[in-house]
Specification:
By secondary structure, the chain is mainly alpha-helical. Helix content is 43%, strand content 8%.
Length: 468
């Protein structure tokens, strides 16, 4: 492939807390797009909003991405030809200031001396009237000089033109969107402390890092006309820009939010979900393969990735689907792998060999590692029987007699019980559910006969007799 046409994508998170599920999805799509095209996947840390930065978040981003196998070709801790890859470290290079001053000199930007406003203040003011033009854009050169002489430090804002239109075709959504510049803000580009805002930094950094494709969340789409104007005024090539669909809450109402849901990748890992399952889950939140395949390893996803598979409708965060996927990947693990994760969950007095015995029985029904406790607890101790358990005690004497005289192996136990149901013309479903409830105290269990063998003949007979 010609080096001038190499696909270069990037993931550019801000270190303001745990990596969001939506952020993981963005990173995975950018990774797949680059690797499928034999391109480069770049990691950039956007930390120019230093007030919102959370200590340790940058390092946490690195470890979380690596936990999911999303290794970057260029970026922090890896290096590359277009570093540094942390924005706060790039400020000293002067690229942001140079770009802002170029816009000033050409009349495409202006000095702003207004006091910074909080998001709450801006929101409150916009309840009454939305102002797209900043008053400082009308300051005369003399007024500007007087303010600077008086010690005021100006910021730099984009001087958005009136009466024009600007448009782009979205790489993900496949549709063209057009804006009238009259309703595009005089956006802040360079703050008075010399740090760029996202609007300036993203254009400068993506250009200098030769990014060809930008994938980002749908909430950034309203900022696109600002970025397009900056590209235009600086005479820079515009990369392909695509906005991913919003992930909806489990009930389908509203965008997934941390107010009512867990949105942290780290927390899902801590809760016992496998990285492979979480990644598989987010890959299908907004992208669909041609053959409706459900299970993907990362390498399989990269191989099959096709941008035409991006969906246009907003996906719902279906936790049941995540549980199912996690169960599927658990089944792929060896019993020894599962044992290494679950052994600490059990009472230390339970022998390791006995824990290993129940793993192949529980594995088919587990969604998470922790499920093994609820599924197999009855094997290690007599269950607490609820008053409304629903056991048909009429079966118990015959079951006790059958098991007491049976050899204690799978074939002998099942042969004896099956012959009993035929001889007595018992309802098989009702009969075996009674046995399950009497042995385990619950309706959902690992394979019953195998569980009974591990528990032992004497204990099983004891449990049955206690219920007669």
């Amino acid at each position: 492939m010609d080096s001038t046409h190499v696909v270069r994508t990037r993931f550019a998170p801000s270190p303001t807390g745990s990596l969001h599920i939506g952020g993981l999805r963005t990173a995975a799509y950018a990774y797949a797009l680059a690797r499928h095209s034999d391109g480069k996947f770049i990691l950039r840390i956007e930390d120019t909003d230093q007030k919102r930065e959370v200590a340790g978040s940058t390092e946490q981003i690195y470890s979380t991405l690596r936990a999911f196998g999303l290794d970057w070709d260029e970026g922090p801790e890896v290096g590359g030809d277009f570093g540094p890859y942390i924005q706060s470290e790039r400020v000293s290079l002067g690229s942001y200031k140079k770009a802002a001053e170029k816009l000033l000199q050409e009349g495409r930007a202006f000095y702003c001396f207004c006091k910074p406003k909080s998001k709450e203040e801006i929101k409150s003011e916009r309840q009454f009237k939305i102002e797209f033009r900043d008053p400082c854009r009308h300051l005369t050169p003399e007024e500007i000089e007087a303010k600077i002489t008086a010690g005021e430090k100006p910021a730099i804002r984009l001087k958005t033109p009136d009466g024009e239109t600007i448009s782009y075709t979205d790489y993900v959504l496949g549709k063209t969107t057009t804006w009238k510049t009259d309703i595009v803000d005089d956006a802040m580009l360079l703050k008075s402390d010399g740090f760029p805002t996202y609007h300036l930094a993203v254009v400068v950094d993506d250009t200098e890092m030769k990014i060809t494709h930008v994938l980002r969340g749908h909430d950034w789409q309203p900022s696109t006309p600002i970025h397009l104007l900056v590209y235009k005024f600086l005479g820079l090539p515009v990369p392909e820009i695509g906005h991913l669909t919003d992930i909806l809450n489990p009930d389908g109402k509203g965008k997934l939010s941390k107010r009512n849901n867990n949105v942290s990748c780290e927390q899902y890992l801590a809760d016992g979900y496998l990285p492979e399952a979480i990644l598989n889950f987010v890959l299908l939140l907004g992208w669909a393969p041609k053959d409706n395949q459900d299970l993907f390893t990362l390498s399989e996803f990269v191989e099959k990735f096709d941008p035409k598979g991006f969906q246009k409708s907003n996906p719902r965060f279906d936790i049941a689907k995540l549980d199912w996927l996690n169960g599927q990947f658990l089944k792929r693990q060896s019993d020894e792998e599962i044992f290494s994760h679950v052994k600490s969950l059990f009472d230390p007095q339970i022998p390791a060999e006995k824990i290993k015995q129940v793993i192949p029985l529980a594995k088919e029904r587990m969604h998470r590692y922790g499920d093994i406790l609820s599924l197999t607890g009855f094997i290690f101790s007599t269950p607490q029987y609820p008053a409304d358990l629903g056991i048909n005690k009429d079966y118990l004497p015959d079951i006790i007699n059958s098991l007491s005289t049976s050899d204690w192996d799978k074939v002998s136990i099942e042969t004896s019980l099956n012959e009993l149901t035929k001889a007595k013309n018992y309802n098989r479903s009702d009969f075996f559910m009674t046995l399950r409830l009497a042995v385990a105290g619950q309706k959902v269990t690992p394979p019953l006969t195998e569980s009974m063998i591990i528990i032992g003949k004497d204990e099983i007979i004891s449990r049955l007799k206690s219920l007669t």
